[in-house]
Input
Amino acid sequence: MTYTLADAIRAQFERDHPNGKNTLLCVGCRRRKDRKDFRETPWHGRAAACLDCEGYGIGGDRLWDRTYNDRTAWNLEQAREKLRMYQRYAAKLRAERYDGAWVAAFAAVGQTSADAFRAHEAPWRRLVEARRQKWAPLIAEALSKAHTLSQEDS
Output
């Protein structure tokens, strides 16, 4: 077994405080600490909290504040997730309501979804075809001129 830094710190603490003399147990971090790590000596009925857990030392907020903030953040996250769930459910209901009407309309007309998609794409296809017909002769002429020029150069 190796001797670690934690073992050295623990041994030094035992040498400084034989049998736990001049120490108090912190109710916040549940560690036994020297009395000087506490703001004041707790009187009867008062729990001892070290400076870190009380908020006067390195730890910052008191332990109660940290747990309260964590709990508040968790509750906020849960509320946001609940809101997202309700929004997804409302979107599902809207989709069922409107998609149901469209499906019924297509069924009544006898039109399939492929026909509806073709009708939706038709203006775009007509535009592309018109552009192709406009530019195809010009491109063919330019290519033929380039071909004849390359033959003349060689």
